[in-house]
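ok posting inputs for the iron/sulfur cluster job
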Amino acid sequence: MVPVNNNLTGYSNFWVVKASKLCNLRCSYCYEWDELGDPKKLSLELWRNFFSGIRHLSEEAKVERKSVSHKLILHGGEPLILPLNYLQSIMDIATDYGGDDLDLQNCLQTNLYSITEEKIQYLKENRFRIGVSFDGVPGTRLSVAGKTTEDQVVKNMEIILRNGINYGCICVVGRHNENRLVDIFNFFYNLRISFRFLPVFDVSQHVNQSQISVNYEATANRLFEVFVIWISKKETLSVRPFLEWLEISLRFLSKQKIRESASRVEGPTVTLVNTDGKLYRVPDAYTAGLEFGDLEYGLPMSFGSKQHRKSVQREENEVNATCNACTFRDYCDSSFIVSSRPERTKHCGVDYLVISKIVRWLGENADHFAMAFEIMSPDAEPIGPELQVLA
Ligand code: SF4
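and the output
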């Protein structure tokens, strides 16, 4: 049997909540570009509806004897520039609706360009897990004033690390850094920071796609090169999606299919909550008329709606169109389609291409297989915290 990473078969609801789009950076590829100067925040009234809905869903799951957990991902814009009293109110409301009983993990995605002592205390007290957006190469993630930000972010990484805050990084891969992936891997490896490579898949209309967008084949080759370096290390850092790619490859080679229910969209769900309270499945994000609900009317009503069924069906159709003819379909939970552009490439693009390379590589040599099994062994403890947050 191939050792199975339980994260793939677990059942979690991911709530990516856009508390505000306001941001202190202007990253060229940001899909929120047009709203980065807008101070509007998700109202506290809608936050109440959100936590009351989470509580309702958790209670419903208990009655049905299902194990369901929730991950709140505070997203932006830049959540750490929001006023402390607003951030604190969100946690107070969560406590009002059950706090720890909700099986809720607090996460926050940040550019970490600015951090204060008060915000550090807030993150610690509320046991936030942090995802830091960091591309390793300057020039794309610029401040509002047009200055590079990487040196300051590295300083702030050291500060939060000294304060015992658990964090991982997300490195968006694009034209700006695709030739430096080995250096970037070494940077994270030397500091023992777990991270995720995320090939850029959507950019704002304000930027010329060709300045940022990746060439799928070239990027897959470069990521595969780093994958081989990663797997050759004795002490394995948790790097995503290397772990997922490897697991799918091993399942495919040993013909170990995953449960049908875990391979379709009714498995782990990701819901995007916009600043106005509208709810989307990720592929529909922000498209007028494709929201499936609204916090104003509460989560239970939104999830029971006809629009929700339609959103699920749309996603199901997209999964079928992207994955049905894929060699790895029975061994993969299709989660890569969230960040794929199948209209521009074969299947889900970079992920599909690298998995194909890994399968070939594993078949070349028994030592490669042995390295893979060592990493996927249930006893193997990857260094660095596990973190899965969308960029
Ligand atoms: S197309 Fe991608 S997401 Fe779909 S089954 Fe294949 S590898 Fe998985």
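notes: The pocket of iron/sulfur cluster is lined by residues 322-323, 326, 328-329, 332, 334, 336-337, 347-348, 351-352, 355 (CB under 6 Å). The two ends are 33 Å apart (CA to CA).
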